[in-house]
Write a structure and sequence with these properties.
By secondary structure, the protein is of the alpha/beta class. The longest helix is centred in the first third of the chain and has 15 residues, at 63-77. The strands form 6 sheets. It has a 7-stranded mixed β-sheet with strand order 2-6-5-3-4-9-8, with helices on both faces. A 7-stranded antiparallel β-sheet has the order 20-21-24-25-26-19-27. The chain has 18 helices and 27 strands. α7 crosses α13. A hairpin with a 6-residue loop joins β22 and β23 (466-467). It has 3 domains: 2-181, 3-Layer(aba) Sandwich (Alpha-D-Glucose-1,6-Bisphosphate, Chain A, domain 3); 185-408, Alpha-D-Glucose-1,6-Bisphosphate, Chain A, domain 3; 410-543, 2-Layer Sandwich (TATA-Binding Protein), CATH 3.30.310.50. The structure holds alpha-D-glucose-1-phosphate-6-vanadate and cobalt (II) ion. The site of cobalt (II) ion has 8 residues, from loops.
């Protein structure tokens, strides 16, 4: 079989963001664009000859084409085996699971997560390393550097592979192995959680639930796990058939984009439990009967109750959360006498802590929760964790969260997103804040006094690497916080994220709506950051 050497030249802007390279499909469709990036990934790696690569994606438009290209390029570059999910499908957590289980050299995930899909939507590609997690910055920067010098790429001159039937296909010296995308992941979940107990809860008829796969990758996983293994009826699942354009939706499991599910959970005859996952299956939203659990609270509740599940019965080594995530988990860590780690936004920063056995649970405010069972955040895992708690505690979601707040206090929390604003305006806002943050200390705003203002910088406790400019934090003397940063996953203009947090220890004052509980901080954030002025927006596009 021939290997073709194709001459090419660099594209600017192939720098991976918070989670891989995300661009409009039309950008990826330019001749050589995808190939350049894949070759840049391979060029930045060493020692993969004869080794195994895992490939799969969330099934969005362009997934199938990209898988075929990557397979032919992997052959040409000398990988020994490529494991690919049937139909080119694998959720992000499943890629992580399979890399680890089969001790692969690494993996390529094709996804732009919850960003809209279809010919006019977004596409994305991300490299994961041998621990199953997203490549750390040192590798993503090396990939970017290669992409800026690339002169040629290698691709095998062969036909498309058959991806719809599990089995092995030999081409030259490489084997392409098509696997069932669900079974290895489902087996891992069964090992971590008490499926018998969850099944009894569901079979009892006293408990009802609804899971929304949002026409994205978790559909087949939810059918196998929730329906086939745990006995939920088909009416417990919504939008379980994946579509190339995600049904025209925006599979971001939050109060705005998962509106249909939220309406069910807050409607008459609402079920006891509701959950949704995102485009590539790594995010989760947890709802109860007329109640919403913020991701930050969810992390704290899971940590406080982890001992009730088989997988975490022995306790937690530590908890890690991204900097903007609320400090609810910090109180649990304190109570348990374990370490709490605060990292920059993006799952890649958890990898070293998990590998070193320092953290067991990790979470981000952006509907991401996970653990050391793999190296990505994991949507269905969080759903199963909650189901396991509900099956053991036999209490409602609302009762569990109220008891949690009563014991630990409540961290009122919200994120305001200003999506697709002018990149110049948002950049200027951040620049101005970065310069002034340090001088805010001691300033008073109503009842609040600034204790610290800075641009968050992180030194990895394992490898000592430093990541700077990870978000402006304004911390008040009572621990309340305002955080601002720019998104690293968007594909249009800039997205400004404003994170707000206030602690309330008094159980009598814990039942406000989050926006009311944070009203003062919302005003102070506007006063300090002049968001309306710089974004030219009167209000956020999304509030979660
Ligand atoms: C967002 C979230 C971040 C998450 C990242 C990838 O990044 O804020 O917490 O890790 O998306 O998640 P940013 O830079 O846009 O704020 V996913 O499910 O989109 O892969
Ligand atoms: Co995602």
């Amino acid at each position: 079989m021939n290997t073709l050497e194709i001459k090419t030249s660099p594209f600017s802007g192939q720098r991976p963001g918070t989670s891989g390279l995300r661009k409009k499909v039309s950008v990826f469709q330019q001749a050589n664009y995808l190939e350049n990036f894949v070759q840049s990934i391979f060029d930045s790696l060493e020692g993969y000859q004869g080794k195994t690569l895992v490939v799969g994606g969330d099934g969005r438009y362009y997934n199938r084409h990209a898988v075929q290209v990557i397979l032919r390029m992997a052959i040409a570059s000398g990988f020994g085996r490529v494991i690919v999910g049937r139909g080119g499908l694998l959720s992000t957590p499943a890629v992580s699971c399979i890399i680890r289980k089969f001790k692969a050299f690494g993996g390529i995930v094709l996804s732009a997560s919850h960003n809209p899909a279809g010919a006019d939507g977004d596409f994305g590609i991300k490299y994961n390393i041998a621990n199953g997690g997203p490549a750390p910055e040192i590798i993503t920067e090396a990939i970017y550097a290669k992409s800026q010098q690339i002169k040629q790429y290698l691709i095998a001159d062969c036909r498309d592979f058959e991806l719809d039937t599990p089995g092995e296909q030999q081409t030259g010296t490489m084997v392409v192995e098509v696997i069932d995308p669900v079974s290895d992941y489902a087996e891992l979940m069964q090992h971590l959680f008490d499926f018998d107990r969850i099944k009894s809860l569901i079979d009892s008829g006293l408990f009802t639930m609804r899971f929304d796969a949002m026409h994205a990758i978790t559909g087949p996983y939810a059918v196998e796990i929730l329906e086939h293994r745990l006995g939920a009826g088909p009416d417990a699942l919504m939008n379980a058939i994946p579509k190339e354009d995600f049904g025209g939706g925006h599979p971001d499991p939050n109060l705005v984009y998962a509106r249909d599910l939220v309406d069910v959970l807050f409607g008459s005859q609402a079920p006891d439990f509701g959950a949704a996952s995102d485009g590539d299956g790594d995010r989760n939203m947890i709802l109860g009967h007329h109640c919403f659990i913020t991701p930050s609270d969810s992390l704290a509740v899971l940590a406080a109750n982890a001992h009730l599940t088989p997988g975490y019965r022995r306790g937690l080594a530590g908890i890690a959360r991204s900097m903007p995530t609320s400090q609810a988990a910090d109180r649990v860590a304190d109570h348990l006498g374990i370490e709490l780690y605060e990292t920059p936004t993006g799952w890649k920063f958890f990898g070293n802590l998990l590998d070193a056995g320092k953290a067991t649970l990790c979470g981000e405010e952006s509907f991401g929760t996970g653990s050391d069972h793999l190296r990505e955040k994991d949507g269905l895992w969080a759903v199963l964790f909650w189901l396991n708690l509900l099956a053991v505690r036999k209490e409602s979601v609302q009762t569990i969260i109220n008891a949690h707040w009563h014991h630990f206090g409540r961290n009122y929390y919200s994120r305001h997103d200003y999506e697709s604003v002018s990149a110049d305006g948002a950049g200027e806002l951040m620049e101005v804040l970065r310069k002034s943050a340090g001088s805010l200390k001691g300033k008073r705003y109503g009842e609040y006094e600034v204790a610290l203002g800075d641009d968050f910088s992180y030194t990895d406790p394992i490898d000592g690497s430093i990541s700077e400019r990870q978000g402006i934090r304004i911390v008040f003397t009572d621990g309340s916080r305002i955080v601002l940063r720019l998104s690293g996953t968007g594909t249009e203009g800039a997205t400004l994220r404003l994170y707000l947090e206030r602690y309330e220890s008094n159980p009598q004052r814990q039942s406000l709506d989050a926006q009311d509980g944070l009203a003062d901080l919302i005003r102070i954030a506007e006063e300090i950051a002049q968001i309306r002025h710089y974004t030219k927006r009167k209000a956020p596009t999304v509030i979660t």
